[in-house]
Specification:
Elements: H1 3-11, H2 21-28, H3 31-55, H4 58-62, H5 66-99, H6 105-148, H7 159-204
Helix pairs in contact: 3-5, 3-7, 5-6, 6-7
Amino acid sequence: MDFNDIQNAWNNEKTENVVLPDNLEKIQSANTPLDKIKKNLKKEFFHQVISIVLIGFIPLVHELPEQGLMLFYLLFSFFVAICVYYLTKLYFFYKRLGAITLKTKDSLYETYFDIRLNMELYKTFGFALTPFMIMATIGLLYNDLSKKIPGFLTTGVTNYQLGVLFGIVVFSMLFMGVALEWWVHKFYGKYAKEIKKVIDELNEE
């Protein structure tokens, strides 16, 4: 194979992943929203850990009886196990974001879809914790009311009380769903949209 053959073979190579100098600057402009996502994720990770520790001290504030204490820490153990599982996944997501170098369109695509995937993971995390928070809240309210109102619920549960309980659970789940959507959009979603905007601009060129 002579020099002309080598040159022709080189020219025939696919160049989809070759980044042009003007595109490189546009791709790297996605680093700004990416840095904001990393910053928010780091802050929230530490806040979540601190919150878990503080929740463990709730029985000391409400002075739960021995049976209530055992039930609380049984629920709390499940709560912690779920938190550890999801926070570990979010931690590794944070580490991946820290190791990313945006130099090609492919790396930008992968980063964007990784962010979208972990936004959904975050929502699942919130929904997984909601039943435990509802049960803990109801238990603590029952403990407080039983101290203030003699004979509270000792005569049985009425249909009205069951209806109120059902309403509280449904409202709490719906409220949590709306709150999670707002929270994820505010701290992650709007920055993901900025990255998607860069991808759309590159596709139009």
